[in-house]
Design goal:
The complex is a heterodimer. Chain A has 13 helices and no strands. The two termini of chain A are 45 Å apart. Helix content of chain A is 75%, strand content 0%. Chain A folds into 2 domains: 41 residues; 232 residues, MetI-like fold. Chain B is of the alpha/beta class. Chain B has 2 domains: 187 residues, D-Maltodextrin-Binding Protein, domain 2; 220 residues, 3-Layer(aba) Sandwich (D-Maltodextrin-Binding Protein, domain 2), CATH 3.40.190. Helix content of chain B is 41%, strand content 14%. In chain B, strands 1, 2, 3, 6, 11, 12 and 13 form a 7-stranded mixed β-sheet that branches. A 4-stranded mixed β-sheet of chain B has the order 8-9-7-10, sandwiched between helices. In chain B, strands 4-5 form a two-stranded antiparallel ribbon. In chain B, a hairpin with a 2-residue loop joins strand 4 and strand 5. In chain B, helix 7 crosses helix 15 and helix 15 runs antiparallel to helix 16. The two termini of chain B are 26 Å apart. The relative contact order of chain B is 0.15. Classes of the chains: A mainly alpha, B alpha/beta. Chains A and B meet through helix 11 of A and helix 3 and helix 15 of B.
Chain lengths: 299, 449
């Protein structure tokens, strides 16, 4: 008898729970899953807006096969990987230093934090323009001091990455720092006290107390930053336009070019789906790494 | 929608008059953006409509309406940037909307739109096309039919400093030599400046040098020729002009028209490749240090080639879904009439597309540039390949050329890769074969409807 009543209550609770989350689920389905499914469906078709005579036939995985054989797409994937790895690593290291400094700053905390956050508050397009002016031909502030060629930084296939990565780091390090700062403030002072009593110096405290306690926050920051960096578009679109040649073209920029430059909606959708699968896979990896049970089991 | 009242014309004149007055009153009450239920024909036209260009066009449309009281012309605002306008047009036309009736098309879009079936053929109106520059008219035909008429032409040309150089260069090598030597003069840092950012302007510069070396993008028989020996020589020449001779600054690898113009009008360059728009602006001593100190010519011939000027310009065409192509054509015909072209030349300095106007005394006072000089350059005009996939083809070539000019690839390697990409583009789009130039596309059913 009691069991039955329990299960009855559970069932009622479950129903209520479903009713409560239904609106949210509906919204998610409408604004996330439906467009996603639509893009996946479009990616199985040929739909070149500029060439209506080709028709809009079902081509199966044809667009994906084309992407696999598309050297420019593969190059853009490599560019994206490079950009993501370097800029996220820089942001994490710099962000950690900044967070540690901010955490210790006793006076003027509010003012300093606001000042640190300023770059994050500036629209990316404005940031990209300013950085472009600084690194452009012979007249930019930076290229006037030193530049790998007389034409400035933006005409060098490797040199053009420097302003891109630096500006991304400049703009988003504050965000990482703020996240990590929040993480630092949750660490119990007692742990440091215990470490000090055990004779641990500053460095050992950092290595054995601060960093392990900060891991979940670091992973969250990594998720945000990696996914953002992997989909980077506006910064590169404005700063280099993917050039010189296509040497700084990322996946998002190439997808944009295919979709809105060439107006190839089928092929562009296939590229978007690939980008989605990659970022989703990355997110899953991070979330597994974040799972405290798994982390506990690894030790 | 004007067809909603097709019988109104047969009603007693008084009633018609009353209706028109009422409609006019209502019109002025609700503003021009509302669609009035009046009996007048409504024609919409879209194009570049900012600044002086908008003033000229609005004046002409107003005059046309005075002469055609039953017609009301509306100017649809579209983005002034070519790429943005192109994208908007494609979306509209793909959706089959009947507006705008008249489209202002860049010369390189016509084949694309015609092949897509988005333009109303003009052959039925039997326009007299004898007066137009043949090079411009070539871009108006697709599959042997006429889809647009040239509105004004644009040509690439070499501006050279008459105070630094005592004569015009005789050949491409001569040009490089002279530009190199002129660099010694005080304040003159650059021999030659050109558009070498990765965009359509680079394609035009490359096209001119390519022709100067006797090369082609697409051969007369329609085969892709950008990996030919001539093309490799042309691109090597361009790269060496930047990196070996240093006559062209490598800063130009990020420059478009305006940066190039600023370098030249500030007196920093001995020569410049640019479009005619720069001429009038640089004759203004208030902003230009080279006013009265320059002349123009087509880019001279190099080894094995001919003097060439990339052909640009705008054309007018009729939307295939226009509810009333006849009415639209009336306006189109009015806009490409000699008088309107002269007015455009006076107002915004655009070159008329009619040859006879270059003898017209009014043109001499309308244009900043002497008409005979303009005419001489237009005679060397070479169109870009007339193909529905021009935009994609151009992007592939731009990437290859820019990679070479930024020393990421050797000319022969980059051009071979681009040629292969263009060939597979033509195969993918069913255009491979001899139809990419002027010849009809046998495998293009929509275009031959």
């Amino acid at each position: 008898m009691p069991k039955q009543r329990d299960s009855g209550i559970e069932a009622a609770d479950a129903r209520l729970a479903w009713c409560c989350i239904a609106p949210a689920l509906l919204v998610i389905v409408a604004i996330a899953l439906v467009p996603l499914a639509w893009a996946a469906w479009a990616s199985l078709h040929r739909n070149d807006l500029r060439m209506p005579w080709l028709g809009q036939s079902f081509v199966g995985l044809g667009n994906y096969a084309e992407a696999a054989g598309d050297a420019r797409f593969r190059e853009s994937l490599a560019h994206t990987g490079l950009f993501t790895a370097v800029s996220v690593a820089m942001e994490l290291v710099l962000g950690l230093c900044l967070a540690l400094g901010l955490h210790r700053a006793a006076r003027l905390r509010g003012v300093i934090r606001m000042a640190v956050l300023l770059p994050w508050a500036i629209p990316t397009v404005a940031v990209a323009l300013v950085w472009r002016f600084m690194f452009e031909d012979g007249y930019g502030v930076i290229s006037a001091i030193w530049s790998p060629s007389s034409g400035g930084w933006l005409v060098g296939a490797s040199a053009a990455w420097v302003p891109l990565i630096l500006s991304d780091a400049w703009k988003t390090t504050p965000f990482v720092a703020l996240l990590l700062l929040a993480g630092l403030q949750t660490i119990d002072d007692g742990q440091y006290e215990a470490a000090r009593i055990d004779g641990a110096g500053r460095a050992r405290q950092l290595l054995h107390v601060t960093l392990p306690a900060l891991v979940p926050t670091i992973v969250v920051a990594l998720i945000f930053r990696t996914l953002d960096a992997f989909r980077v578009f506006d910064l590169i679109y404005v700063l280099t336009g993917g050039g010189p040649g296509t040497s700084t073209e990322t996946v998002a920029l190439y997808t944009f070019n295919s979709l809105f430059g060439r107006l190839r909606f089928g092929y562009g959708s296939a590229l978007s789906v690939i980008v989605f699968v990659v970022t989703f896979g990355l997110a899953l990896l991070y979330i597994r790494a974040l799972d405290p049970q798994r982390r506990g089991g690894d030790r | 929608m004007a067809n909603q009242y097709p019988k109104l014309g047969r009603q007693p004149p008084q009633l018609r008059h009353t209706a028109m007055v009422a409609a006019a009153g209502w019109l002025s009450a609700v503003g021009a953006c509302e669609r009035p239920a009046d009996p007048t024909q409504r024609i919409t036209i879209s194009g570049s409509a900012v600044g002086a260009e908008a003033d000229v066009l609005k004046r002409q449309l107003k005059r046309f309406m005075l002469g055609h009281p039953h017609v009301r012309v509306e100017l649809l605002q579209t983005p002034d940037a070519a790429e943005a306008r192109h994208q908007l047009y494609v979306q509209w036309l793909n959706a089959g909307v009947g507006e705008p009736d008249i489209l202002q098309l860049d010369v390189i879009w016509i084949a694309e739109f015609a092949a897509a079936g988005w333009l109303h053929p003009l052959d039925g109106f039997a326009p007299d096309t004898n007066d137009y520059f043949p090079a411009a008219l070539r871009a108006d035909r697709w599959n042997g039919r006429l889809f647009a008429l040239p509105w004004f032409v644009d040509v690439g040309m070499i501006y050279w400093r008459t105070d630094l150089l005592d004569r015009a260069p005789a050949s491409l090598d001569d040009l490089m030599e002279m530009a190199d030597q002129a660099r010694g003069a005080p304040g003159v840092y650059y021999g030659l400046v050109w558009q070498a950012a990765r965009y359509e302007g680079l394609m035009c510069v490359f096209l001119e040098v390519l022709h100067a070396f006797g090369g082609r993008i697409v051969d007369a028989d329609g085969s892709v020729a950008i990996d030919s020996r001539e093309a490799v020589a042309a691109l090597t020449f361009m790269r060496d002009a930047i990196h070996t001779r240093g006559v062209v600054p490598d800063a130009s690898l990020t420059w478009q028209e305006e940066q190039v113009r600023f370098a030249f009008q500030n007196g920093q360059a001995a020569m410049m490749r640019n479009w005619p728009y720069a001429y009038g602006l640089m004759q203004d001593p208030a902003q230009s240090r080279v006013a009265g100190k320059f002349s123009v010519m087509p880019i001279p011939a190099g080894p094995g080639g001919t003097s060439a000027a990339a052909l640009g310009g705008s054309h007018l065409a009729i939307n295939a879904h226009s509810p009333d192509p006849q009415a639209a054509y009336k306006l189109l015909k009015y806009l490409v009439a000699p008088q309107q072209m002269l007015e455009r030349a006076r107002g915004v300095g655009q070159f008329p597309s009619r040859q006879s106007l270059y003898e017209h005394p009014e043109l001499a006072e309308a244009l900043a540039i002497p008409p005979a000089q303009a005419r001489q350059i237009i005679n060397h005009a070479v169109p870009r390949p007339v193909t529905p996939v021009y935009a994609e083809l151009s992007e592939l070539v731009q990437v290859a050329v820019h990679r070479v000019l930024t020393r990421q690839a050797e000319p022969a390697v980059a051009l071979r890769r681009a040629a292969d990409e263009v060939r597979s583009l033509l195969v993918r789009t069913g255009l491979s074969g001899p139809q990419t130039e002027d010849d009809p596309a046998a495998s293009n059913p929509r275009g031959s409807e």
